[in-house]
């Protein structure tokens, strides 16, 4: 299994690996993007069914990554030759087109073209033409394509054309790591890569002076290119260890993520498991995951609507409690056990494909 170390794919990969352990599945995780921190090495070593092969190759969405993408492909094929895995599970696109022994699983967690459309409101510029072609080739060569929401799967079809056989498998988090404390404190929490315009934390920071409650933001404020985001209207908590962030979520009354682009939203799931009321960006993927009254939704460009939603929750304890209960009830459906079972079914199909299987 491949994983980048920059975003939420790392968390997803470890959660899936942990859930696969009870089925006797051993995972070798091939990491790219950046070296692992000591904290992440500790997380990996805690899983008895996980081995890690570390690299620093640039990721396909980074600036001019193609020499690294090619070198990473050679490295991955050498790992396949040495390890002889039953299944190759790629959490990226370009390497799907490599000459694998069996067609791989390609999981689409996000992509530049759908990000650009959602965040910038226009098509990605021509400089991403090579990225488009590499992603499209990787998807076409996949034995199976999976996405964490139907909205993300449809975005892949829209930007890259018809897909091979495909599935939606929702992401998951184990509730045990997110205790739901009964005493909630009057503050609003948000978390994520602060430099990512998709998270839209800048809108939350902009309206913070108009809110009755303080706003706390956890996450990396430094872009991989080196520049740093400053948000003077909120309290910056920095990049927190998962256990520390879970404690903040157990205290917060409200979790806000007015995202412009979020193919699933692991942080919202963690907050819901912790007992926070959710205020989320009104986009198709978050509606898909958190519909049926499990969150308040606000247009990502509407600061007034965000203020109104957050203020309504700060004033109305009954509404806040009811919304938090609905969010946690829905969150408990997204279990690692269910996610692992769905992936095991896909793995079995990849190992023993049925020629007559229809393509959705």
TrEMBL record:
<feature type="domain" description="Glycosyltransferase subfamily 4-like N-terminal">
    <location>
        <begin position="6"/>
        <end position="168"/>
    </location>
</feature>
<dbReference type="GO" id="GO:0016757">
    <property type="term" value="F:glycosyltransferase activity"/>
</dbReference>
<dbReference type="GO" id="GO:0009103">
    <property type="term" value="P:lipopolysaccharide biosynthetic process"/>
</dbReference>
<protein>
    <submittedName>
        <fullName>Glycosyltransferase family 4 protein</fullName>
    </submittedName>
</protein>
<dbReference type="Pfam" id="PF13692">
    <property type="entry name" value="Glyco_trans_1_4"/>
</dbReference>
<keyword id="KW-0808">Transferase</keyword>
<dbReference type="InterPro" id="IPR028098">
    <property type="entry name" value="Glyco_trans_4-like_N"/>
</dbReference>
<dbReference type="Pfam" id="PF13439">
    <property type="entry name" value="Glyco_transf_4"/>
</dbReference>
